[in-house]
């Protein structure tokens, strides 16, 4: 499988990618824990079947010190004991926010209450934005068939600077 279209070699595509990177930079620099950011982006990417993003977020999380055990258990986090209550709330929000079309009424009141219990307003703003952004990014990569496997930690930061 090869990439259908390289957004980065298209002037408008590259401009869009820089804007996305700028939004991501705001989220990365926020008080939302980096571990939570990695876990939520990885889970949404798994659900959306985005090989490129699963590759990227797994490797970036590992580079930031995340363990292989936890990364391997993200897909089955509900049946795992390695995630904190705050991480579980973020993973539930990532799943429900990603599967909006699959689950009426979208994000449950229970999940929202758990998120409110663990995060302040600024962190919630960043978590909600991160989930929306990763879903958009997943869709961009899936549409153009951007495959996973060749990403190396730090490549995204280097490309967006």
From TrEMBL:
Cited Gene3D superfamilies: AhpD-like
Q: Which Pfam families does the record cross-reference, listed alphabetically? A: CMD
> Where does this protein come from, organism-wise?
Actinomadura yumaensis
Q: What InterPro entries does this protein's entry cite?
A: AhpD-like, AhpD_core, CMD-like
The Carboxymuconolactone decarboxylase-like domain covers which part of the protein? Answer: 25-96
Residues that span the membrane, as ranges: none
- This one is known as Carboxymuconolactone decarboxylase family protein
Q: Which residues form the signal peptide?
A: none
């Amino acid at each position: 499988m090869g990439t259908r279209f390289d957004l980065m070699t298209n002037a408008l595509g590259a401009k869009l990618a820089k804007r996305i990177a700028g939004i991501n930079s705001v989220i990365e620099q926020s008080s939302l824990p980096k571990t939570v950011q990695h876990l939520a982006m990885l889970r949404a990417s798994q659900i959306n079947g985005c090989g490129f993003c699963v590759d990227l977020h797994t490797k970036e999380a590992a580079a930031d010190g995340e363990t292989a055990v936890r990364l391997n258990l993200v897909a089955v986090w509900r049946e795992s004991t390695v995630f904190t209550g705050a991480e579980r709330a973020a993973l539930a929000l990532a799943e429900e926010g990603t599967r909006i079309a699959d689950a009426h009424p979208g994000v449950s009141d229970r999940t929202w209450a758990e998120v409110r219990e663990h995060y302040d307003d600024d962190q919630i703003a960043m978590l909600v934005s991160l989930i929306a952004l990763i879903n958009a990014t997943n869709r961009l990569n899936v549409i153009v068939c951007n495959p996973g496997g060749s990403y190396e930690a730090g490549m995204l930061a280097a490309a967006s600077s």
